Structure formats: structure tokens, C-alpha cells
């Protein structure tokens, strides 16, 4: 039989463990299902949808610029998309934040997609980086705001694994 003071300590430990488990369960890892490339001279986000991710919001913002500029598009009544030309909303989507209206050389940008608030790994890019990509490559986001160029096929395989 446990003494009351020991019972209280055991209950406290169990409550702490339950809290940690709950907080950890509420923060799913960001999906690696987005990439950016240039299409007809325009930055374009590729999105790989899956059972656990269906983009309902796309966002792009400036990095290292004060004040930062941003462009956001929400799915609204539009359907799912697998490609979004940034700064141009897909059919049926609505733009709800628009302080970013044009891309500028020498500026760094961050693009992300969201599903009910759950974000993807953000992809940082500059116009020069996109212009330098071979036609079969895309930029993907890496930890710490880094990015790397990979083939589109490699990106799509990795995105499916991320799902």
C-alpha cells in the first residue's frame, strides 16, 4: 500500500507525463510536400497532396526586409491544386493578404503551404536561384532556413514518404 505522500508524487509524475504526451501529439512535424521552381519566368510552388495534407492556403513573404511584405491565398471555394504560380491566385481561391505585389531581384523570399493551419517545411529562394535551376530541378526547404536543389522526381518521391 502506498503512503499518501508517495501516492501524490506518483500522481504528479503521471500527470506530467500525460501533459507532455498531449503537447507532443498536438504538434505534427511539418510536411516536406512543397518545392519552388520557375515556370515561364514566374516563381511557382509545387505541392504534393496526400491523405494527411491537402493545401488550403499558400503564403509567400520577404525575408530580411523591414517591413516584411506578404501574399496569402486561401482555397475558399476553389479546388485542390498541385501547382501555384506565386502572386497569382488559383481559380476559386481568394487573396486575403497582399502587401507583396511583385518579386524583386536580390530579395530573399519564403514560401509555404498550409492545411488547416499545419504548415509545410518552408522553401526560401531568390529569383537568381530559381533562374539558375536546370529545367528538371526544384528548390526544397531544409532545416534552419536552408534550401537545396533536387530533381523534381526526387522531390516527389521524398514528398510521398513525408506523407
| N- and C-termini, Cα separation | 48 Å
Shape, principal axes of CA atoms: globular
Strands, total number: 11
Largest pleated sheet = 6 strands, antiparallel
What is this structure, in a nutshell?
This protein is α+β, with helices and mostly antiparallel strands and 163 residues long.
Overview of this structure, please?
This protein has 163 residues and is of the alpha+beta class. Helices cover 24% and strands 34% of the residues. Strands 3, 4, 6, 7, 8 and 9 form a six-stranded antiparallel sheet that branches. It is globular, with a radius of gyration of 20 Å. The termini are far apart.
SSE blueprint:
Layout: H1 4-25, E1 34-39, E2 42-47, E3 57-63, E4 70-74, E5 83-85, E6 94-98, E7 108-115, E8 118-119, E9 123-125, H2 127-132, E10 137-141, E11 147-151, H3 152-162
Antiparallel strand pairs: 1-2, 2-5, 3-4, 3-7, 4-6, 7-8, 7-9, 10-11
List the defining traits of the structure above.
single chain, 24% helix, 163 residues
Amino acid at each position: 500500500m502506498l503512503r499518501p505522500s508517495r501516492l501524490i508524487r506518483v500522481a504528479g509524475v503521471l500527470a506530467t507525463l500525460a501533459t507532455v504526451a498531449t503537447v507532443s501529439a498536438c504538434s505534427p512535424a511539418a510536411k516536406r510536400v512543397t518545392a519552388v521552381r520557375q515556370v515561364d519566368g514566374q516563381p511557382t510552388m509545387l505541392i504534393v497532396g496526400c491523405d494527411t495534407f491537402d493545401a488550403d492556403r499558400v503564403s509567400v513573404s520577404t525575408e530580411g526586409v523591414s517591413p516584411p511584405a506578404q501574399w496569402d491565398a486561401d482555397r475558399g471555394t476553389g479546388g485542390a491544386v498541385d501547382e501555384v504560380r506565386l502572386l497569382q491566385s488559383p481559380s476559386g481561391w481568394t487573396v486575403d493578404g497582399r502587401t507583396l505585389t511583385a518579386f524583386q531581384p536580390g530579395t530573399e523570399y519564403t514560401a509555404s503551404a498550409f492545411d488547416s493551419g499545419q504548415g509545410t517545411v518552408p522553401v526560401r529562394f531568390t529569383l537568381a536561384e530559381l533562374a539558375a535551376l536546370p529545367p528538371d530541378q526544384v528548390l526544397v526547404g531544409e532545416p534552419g532556413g536552408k534550401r537545396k536543389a533536387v530533381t523534381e522526381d526526387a522531390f516527389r518521391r521524398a514528398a510521398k514518404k513525408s506523407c
